[in-house]
Amino acid sequence: MTVAGNFALFFYVSAMAFALLYGGFRQRALFVLTMATAGAGFAFQTWQITEVWLHRGYPPATNLMELFQLAAWAVLALYFAMYPMTRSKILAFFLMPVVNLCYLAGMLVSGHEAAAEPKAFFFTAWFAVHIFLLVFGISFFFVSFLYAAIFIMQDHSLRHRRAPSHLPLPSLEEAERWSARLLLAGYPLFSLGMFSSILYGVLHRSGQNYRPGVLEAASVLAWVILGVAGYGWLTAKVHPRRRSWLVVAGAAFSVLIIIGIIWH
Amino acid sequence: MSDLILVGVNHKKTPVELRECLAFGDAEKLPFIERLRASGRIRGAVLLSTCNRVELYADPAEGTSPDHIIDAVMEVRRFPRERRDLFYVQQHKEAVQHLFRVASGLDSMVLGEPQILGQVKDAYFLARDGGAVTTPLNLLFQKAFHVAKQVRTQTGIGERPVTISYAAFNLAQGIFQDLATKRILLLGAGEMSRIVATHFVESGVRQVRVSNRTYEHGVEFARQFGAEVVRWEDFPKALIQSDIVISSTGASQPIILRPMLETVMKLRRWASLFMIDIAVPRDIEEAAGKLDGVYLYNIDDLQEVADEGLAERQKKATLAESMIASELNLYARFLEHQGLSEVIGGVMAWAAKIQDAELEEALRKLGDLNPKQQEIVRNTVRRVVHKVLHAPVTQVKRLVLEEEATHALQVFRELFPTENEPDRKAPREDR
What we know:
By secondary structure, chain A is mainly alpha-helical. Chain A has helices at residues 3-25, 28-56, 64-86, 90-108, 125-159, 172-204, 214-235, 240-263. Chain A has 2 domains: 1-118; 124-264. Chain B is of the alpha/beta class. In chain B, the strands form 2 sheets. A 6-stranded parallel β-sheet of chain B has the order 7-6-5-8-9-10.
């Protein structure tokens, strides 16, 4: 990992600590520190990604560590972009541990080294488009999943005649709205990312980049489930609680995609 | 601690019919404080008058006792003389602690309620704008606001609901993002229903509809909320456009059954419906509450939420009390520091005044000294004065700040005069 990567890790761990403290004490200063340290970590990681990309000539997303770390970066980018609209401080409490988990998990799994003989596909614009669409699509699904999980938690709490939890969670209505928006925004990105790789394989008849396996099966399954959830939202034919469960299931299959990547 | 005097009555000992005798409207507060100031009894005061308490926090003039203030209050209010015992009096540290507890909601009828802080602030601002807030009162109230905020944010004492209406409102906040845009339907015109609906309306819900078996009663009830009236036979249709339903009819059988609500929910496209059934016997079939998107609560459910909230607040109140105790000590130390700085500053100024006078006299007597020599003489005298005062000043600082020996400051004050009283113990000059 580069110096910038180490700095990013340091700031992400600090941001997680502040976010968890914010969950406990809910002091505005703690949230400001969370955002400041997360922002610093994000800046360092952006620097790291750019540095590696320029050095290699293709995006740093060709091994598991890089993919995990890119996912962490995309999730954080999405949170920063959403915050002015949602003003959801408590989301950082759920999100920062995941960002750190992705970042650290990337370091713990095998396959850190850059590909010895990079495939020609890596140097094409197709690869950059494929990776960024896919990673951003998954990050949209991931935050949508967080909101869906919050919906289920709130629904459970309200059905059991309990006052809303100690954490200032968003209301059912807000959780549902954001879960839907993110799902519907992430779906085209994920679809394009998934099919761009297939299209490249077909167009170049190489066959190397398109091999049906666990990865593809899990991707298609996640794609179908999330599609059903999205359809449910668009048509309002499925109750919000069931739609939230579908998003959770879709996210579970997204995890399967990652497992698929490990096997691939 | 400052010479603060607090006199007051509150809901704990004084019944409402006597509290209302003492209550002050906003327009009456300043004239009363002014009257007290004009009588020379106080330098300044803040008068807090709410439905549960009337309290006067006064910065007294020398020689003023709490009895003088109680007499003044009873003079302007028709309060029975024989019930003078209902007044409580607190002074110095106890009065400060009381204010911290009041502002934090720990002394309120509903433990931890947030409105009291706003009421204390209003009382303070009114007095401040009227020029009735002296420096000690200003420091005290600023500190009280800070403490109350700390207590509220760090313990979260006001978060859980403790009344049925607040419980209902709190649950609704868990369901809807913006209650101001939601529509309430009141079924029946019961008292409890009115209380709960009032809470929602006061919190910003604007669209209220009322449906009652007797249309005329419904119209009368609706007038209280500026609500629209729906004919009883049309209420199932009104359910489709409502987000919150509060039901308290006197019906002996449920009026909303599961099949009816199933249809309503389909037509609502599963948008959440918050239903509060306050009636006994219940108006809404229990099975209807199991439908997706329906959040049904009866009076016992709401009471349970309120009871849980109260238990939670009581737990948090213990933490809040310890926070207040620690803030009280900090405040006492702060005032001591402030007193210490003032006294030391006064003594140093007194010494500097003598030093300058003596220096001028000496330089005059010495005659033709060049500027360098003059500078040497000046610096020598200054060093001597500082060295002489260094030991007692350091000692008194140590005693007050480290050993909390507040009497040391008093002794220091007695030993050394300050700038404003230079002749008290100044040594007679031998000329």
